[in-house]
Amino acid sequence: MFAGNKEFVIALDEGTTNAKAIALDGFGNVVAKFSQPLAIQTPREGWVEQSGEALISASLDVIAQAISHVGAENVAALAISNQRETAIGWYRQSGKPLNAAITWQCTRSAEFCETLRREGKEQQIKTTTGLPIAPLFSAFKMRWLLESTSEGVQLADQGEICLGTIDAWLLWNLTAGDSFCCDHSNAARTQLLNLKTGEWDEEMLALFHIPRAALPEIKPSSGLFGYTRGLKTIPDGIPVMAMVGDSHAALFGHALGEAGCVKATYGTGSSVMAPVNSAQCDIATLATTIAWHDGENIVYGLEGNIPHTGDAVAWMADSTGLSELTDAELAHELNTLPASVDSTMGVYFVPALTGLGAPWWDDSARGVVCGLSRGVKRAHLIRAALESITYQIADVVEAMQQHDNFHLSALMVDGGPTKNDWLMQYQADLLGCPVMRSDVPELSAIGAGLLARKALTPGTVADLKTLLTEHSEFKPDMARHQRLQKRWQEWRHAVNRTLWKPASSI
C-alpha cells in the first residue's frame, strides 16, 4: 500500500496566522502535530502582508519537527495545503522575494478593480475564470508586485522573476528551485486560469499584464511535484505528492467531495464551498472554481469567500476587553457569554472591516454596529459578533441555491471557531440542516494528506473513505429555525447600511 515500508505522510497547512504540520499514519490518524505562529503586517489602511521568508522559515521548521518525530526513513511523502490568493514574487536566480507576500485580505488593488468594472471587463473575467472582480484574487496582487519592482514587467517577461501563490513559493524552497509548479486549485484562484481548459488564459494574462514566463507550471493537486533538496533540517529525496488550497483541502478532508456536503471553514475569514460537477459561471455573486484535480478528474467547486468571521469575533473581543484573557479563558467566555443572554437586544454587527465579500462584493463597505441601546452589555456585543458569522455563511448558502447542481444535505464545518458549541447550534438552527463538525481540527492538512495518499496508492477516491475522520452532529431545532428567519432579515437591513450601493437582495 505504501512506498516500501514508509507509512507516514507529513502534511503542512500553511495558513494566515499559523504554519502547522501533522504526521498521518496509514490509517489516517494524526500521530503528531506541530505549529508556529505567523505575523501579519498592515503598513497602510487596507494593506495586509506577510514576510515571505518568515512563511518559509516557519513552514520548514514544523515540517522538520514532524519528520523527526516519525523518522525520515518512515516518511512516504509530503503534502501541502496553503492560504489561497496570497501572492508573492521572487527573483529566479537568488530566490529573494521582490517584496512582502500580499495576503488574501489585502485591498490595495481596489482602485484597479474599479477601473476594470468601469471598462466593462467583469463579465469577460467571470466567464473565463469563474471569479468576480475583487481585490481578493492573486492577479491584482501580482500586477502590483511587478509595477512596484524596478523593470519588473521586463524582468518577468525574460523569465527572471517568478510569480506565484504560496504553494509555488513553498515548493520552490523545498526543492531548492528545481520545481516551479502550482496545483489547479491554487491556479484557479489567481483570475488568470481558464476554468474550462485548466490552463493559463492568454486574454487574462494580457488584461493583467502578467508575462506567462513568470508563472509556474500547473499540475494536478494529487501527484508528484518534486523532491526535497538542499535543506539543513529536511533530508533530500522526500517526494511532494500533493498541493492544494486550504479550503479545497478541507472540503476533500470532510467527505471527499460527496454531493450535498457543503463545507464551511471558520477561520480568520471563511470559505463556503460546495462540490458541483460543472463549471457553471452565471451566478454573479459567487465564484466557480476548481476544487481539485485528483490525478484523474477535475472536480469543480461553487464558493463564497467571507473576509471577516473569526476575525470579527477577535475584533469584538479586543474592543470589549476580552483580549487580555488567556486563550482558555477567552474560549470559555466566547462559549458562555452568548448563551447568558436571550438575544443581542437588537444589536447587529456587520464586520466589513476591509469590505464585504460574497455574496455582496463591496470593497468600499465598512463595518457597522447598529441597534445599540442603553441596556446593551458586553455579552450582547459578543453574541452579535458570533451571530454575524452564521448570517454571513447563510447568505452564501442561499446564493448557492441558484446553481443547477446544488443541494444541501449537511453543512460540514471545520476551523478554530467551530469549537464553540453555541455557535454551531445557532448555525444549524439558522440554516435548518445538520451541522457536522470535524472532530479533528487539522482538516486542511488531512485533506492534503489524503490527496497525497491517493497519488501514492492505486485505486479511486472512494477507496479513501475508510481514512476519513469522525464528525460531531448538531441537529437543527426547526421551531427555532422559523423564528430565526426574522432575525436573518433584520441582519440584511444592517448589511445594507454598510454597502456603498445598498442592495435589496442578494
UniProtKB/TrEMBL annotation:
It holds the Pfam family FGGY_C. GO terms for cellular component: cytosol. GO terms for biological process: glycerol catabolic process. Residues 9-253 form the Carbohydrate kinase FGGY N-terminal domain. It comes from the Bacteria. Belongs to the FGGY kinase family. This is ATP:glycerol 3-phosphotransferase. It comes from Escherichia fergusonii (strain ATCC 35469 / DSM 13698 / CCUG 18766 / IAM 14443 / JCM 21226 / LMG 7866 / NBRC 102419 / NCTC 12128 / CDC 0568-73). The lineage of its organism: Bacteria, Pseudomonadati, Pseudomonadota, Gammaproteobacteria, Enterobacterales.
